[in-house]
């Protein structure tokens, strides 16, 4: 029945089948799961062997670099070694546990793809991946005129294990695209009853005699869906424990979580290849971050941020809370039209300099700004990635959820949320001392000590000259610490509530903080203006085929050429490499958790709960359930894959005749929860992580718990207001129903 001979291939236990089907043809494919599992033992990859020698070598190299050399005086040598030990070493029990965890994950990741430690057993899973010219959306199958039907059948005869014959049959219908051009992958998992042979039938129902190219991959998984979800939940909980209690840096925690998730996939028989893992990383986001970091790094050399801080101090007239409210409102408005990450990368340096001028603690102000940035991003269809995913879905556009309708509804709701957020924020900050409890001179001295120490740690003593420079820096730290102790002895604590001498201070600050390079400032403003203008065009003009990442990278290259940077390494030192690595590891972690069925399981269980509710209360309960599940899930996992997974679940739910729910309230509840839920935790939104990374680079880093104490209550309050808005409009006023 096929136009060409079948092409079979196997790689690491995965069987692939390529075929061309013509009109009304049928292909039956039978395979034995036990025979498939035997081929695992014939594979071996020596390149994936043990890495003890390289690990020991890297440890020795790290220990060697921590030493300052025999040329250092005893005092500075002891001090620097204490700092290095504090910076790199963990307590012995925790270090031993992490070492054991690392060895176990590496062992599982290397051994399970090459050895068949488990045969295909009862209640195992069969994973099918089919590639072909399928429809990209979730169009109803009954509306498609051309489609393929895949039947998966397994029969176990009666015997010693079972008294009667048991048979399972699954039908999988996939609608075909009329163009026959784009190759789209579809994946589905089927539960098998035993190790008996499995029969797969593929039938093509076509209107013409054109050939349909198809590829199919089948793979045996050794763990049930519930067990996969449990493993994924444990991995996610472990990552949060590492971050919450600051056992390791959040970047290392994300990397260890990614390794554990990949090891779990290898354990169940679904180990991805290196190319697949690399494809999981969202390079557009990384390019956007890298490009904006370069732009901000060059921009900061002009003194513009200091100048803006002085002007904001002058406008506030020494009053702190009006200034904070204005900053939060501007951040919310900008994030409605710009990407949240871009908004925070521009706002964070200005806020830090402003707080230093006012002798404020920047941490609380930055957390407030990033919270309102996430709230403002939910107001429009281009403010947050989940909104972009929703308005880009073709099926939802057919239902009337386009750019204008989505923005109009969400904008009204977010304005209501903002009006209630300002007084609630003031209530949260009621007992918090925004002013530093010490004089500005002591605060600046402490910050200077921290910056000098960080600079010393970043120097790798590869030569005698670099070792000598590091020694001088550490000696500088010792001298400053001695000076700080003297000042603290004579200091009388005075907590300012309002700067009474702000007019006199303005004159002093204007002399100190000026624009240092006006020519470079003009170049930076020109490039940054063009980049932001292109961001707007990319959001509103579909004809522009440049993504945000490309725009940021091209803008950074343009500014590097105009600025004529001679020492390029200085600019690269200003790039937050730890933040970029964190996002890369986070993308891999979330995609691996999705492959472990965690996100699909959340969506399916949400749909099951909605179906069992009484019909007269189903819509209200569905709005509440989708809203809070989305908010809580988005505060723990990335909201982008969660939104992409929930959209088809909600569409299918609305098309179910037994449920009879409108699609618009469910989608708006999903958008509201996914956007506002990012304020729940530090890693709930990309803007949170970017803000924390820049603040840490300036010496004002805040921990997971510091953000959680302010962000989580704000998330609960804003989601409650958003839920009330949804219920009032859809249940009370019957909008869009």
From TrEMBL:
Pfam families: CitMHS. CDD domains: P_permease. Signal peptide: none annotated. It is found in: Membrane. It is a multi-pass membrane protein. Its main location: membrane. Residues 240-673 form the Citrate transporter-like domain. GO terms for cellular component: melanosome membrane. Keywords: Membrane, Transmembrane, Transmembrane helix, Transport. The keyword Transmembrane helix applies. PANTHER family: P PROTEIN. It comes from Cyprinus carpio (Common carp). The chain crosses the membrane at residues 189-207, 227-245, 252-268, 288-308, 320-338, 403-425, 519-537, 543-565, 577-599, 619-637, 666-695, 707-728. This is Oculocutaneous albinism II. GO terms for biological process: melanin biosynthetic process; melanocyte differentiation; transmembrane transport.
């Amino acid at each position: 029945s096929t136009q060409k001979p079948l092409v079979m291939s196997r790689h690491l236990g995965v069987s692939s089948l390529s075929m061309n089907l013509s009109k009304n043809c049928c292909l039956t494919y039978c395979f034995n799961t036990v025979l498939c599992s035997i081929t695992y033992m014939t594979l071996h990859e020596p390149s994936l062997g043990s890495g003890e020698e390289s690990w020991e070598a890297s440890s020795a190299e790290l220990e060697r670099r921590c030493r300052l050399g025999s040329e250092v005086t005893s005092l500075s040598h002891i001090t620097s070694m204490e700092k290095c030990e504090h910076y790199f070493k963990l307590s012995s029990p925790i270090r031993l546990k992490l070492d054991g965890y690392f060895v176990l994950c590496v062992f599982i990741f290397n051994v399970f793809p090459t050895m068949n430690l488990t045969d295909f057993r009862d209640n195992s899973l069969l994973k099918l991946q089919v590639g072909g010219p399928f429809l990209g959306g979730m169009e109803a199958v009954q509306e498609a005129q051309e489609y393929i039907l895949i039947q998966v059948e397994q029969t176990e005869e009666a015997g010693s294990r079972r008294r009667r014959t048991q048979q399972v049959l699954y039908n999988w219908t996939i609608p075909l695209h009329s163009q026959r051009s784009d190759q789209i992958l579809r994946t589905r998992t089927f539960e098998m009853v035993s190790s008996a042979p499995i029969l797969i039938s593929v039938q093509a129902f076509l209107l013409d005699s054109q050939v349909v190219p198809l590829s199919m991959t089948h793979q045996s998984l050794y763990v049930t869906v519930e067990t996969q979800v449990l493993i994924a939940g444990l991995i996610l909980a472990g990552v949060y424990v590492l971050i919450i209690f600051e056992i390791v840096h959040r970047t290392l925690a994300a990397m260890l979580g990614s390794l554990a998730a990949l090891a779990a996939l290898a354990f169940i028989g679904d180990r991805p290849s290196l190319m697949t893992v690399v494809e999981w990383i969202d390079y557009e986001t990384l390019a956007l971050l890298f490009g904006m970091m370069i732009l901000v790094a060059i921009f900061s050399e002009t003194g513009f941020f200091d100048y803006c801080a002085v002007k904001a101090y002058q406008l506030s007239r020494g009053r702190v809370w009006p200034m904070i409210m204005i900053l939060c409102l501007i951040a919310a408005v900008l994030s409605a039209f710009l990407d949240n990450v871009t908004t925070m990368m521009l706002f964070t340096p200005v806020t830090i300099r402003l707080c230093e001028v006012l002798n404020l603690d920047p941490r609380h102000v930055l957390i407030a700004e990033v919270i309102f940035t996430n709230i403002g991003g939910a107001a429009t269809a281009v403010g947050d990635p989940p909104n972009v995913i929703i308005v880009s879905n073709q099926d939802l556009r057919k239902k009337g959820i386009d750019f204008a309708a989505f923005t109009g509804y969400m904008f009204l709701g977010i304005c209501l949320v903002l009006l209630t957020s300002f007084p609630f924020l003031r209530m949260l900050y009621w007992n918090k001392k925004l002013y530093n409890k010490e004089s500005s001179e002591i605060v600046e001295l402490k910050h200077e000590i921290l910056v000098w120490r960080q600079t010393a740690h970043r120097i790798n003593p590869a030569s005698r000259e670099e070792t000598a420079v590091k020694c001088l820096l550490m000696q500088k730290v010792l001298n400053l610490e001695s000076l700080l102790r003297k000042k603290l002895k004579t200091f009388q604590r005075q907590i300012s509530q309002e700067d009474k001498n702000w007019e006199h201070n303005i004159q002093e600050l204007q002399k100190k903080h000026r624009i240092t390079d006006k020519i470079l400032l003009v170049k930076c403003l020109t490039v940054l203006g063009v980049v932001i203008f292109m961001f707007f065009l990319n959001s509103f003009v579909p004809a522009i085929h440049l993504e945000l990442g490309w725009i940021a990278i091209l803008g950074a290259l343009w500014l590097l050429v105009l600025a004529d940077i001679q020492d390029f390494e200085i600019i690269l030192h200003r790039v937050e490499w730890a933040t970029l690595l964190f996002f890369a590891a986070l993308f891999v972690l979330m995609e691996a958790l999705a492959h472990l069925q965690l996100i699909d399981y959340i969506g399916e269980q949400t749909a099951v709960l909605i179906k069992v509710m009484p019909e007269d209360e189903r819509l209200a309960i569905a709005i509440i359930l989708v809203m809070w599940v989305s908010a809580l899930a988005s505060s723990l996992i990335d909201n982008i894959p969660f939104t992409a997974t929930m959209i088809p679940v909600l569409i299918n739910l609305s098309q179910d005749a037994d449920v009879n729910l409108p699609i618009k309230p469910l989608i708006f509840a999903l958008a509201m929860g996914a956007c506002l839920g990012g304020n729940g935790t530090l890693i709930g939104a990309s803007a949170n992580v970017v803000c924390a990374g820049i603040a840490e680079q300036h010496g004002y880093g805040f921990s997971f718990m510091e953000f959680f104490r302010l962000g989580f209550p704000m998330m609960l309050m804003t989601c409650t207001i958003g839920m009330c808005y949804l219920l009032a409009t859809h249940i009370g006023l019957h909008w869009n129903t």
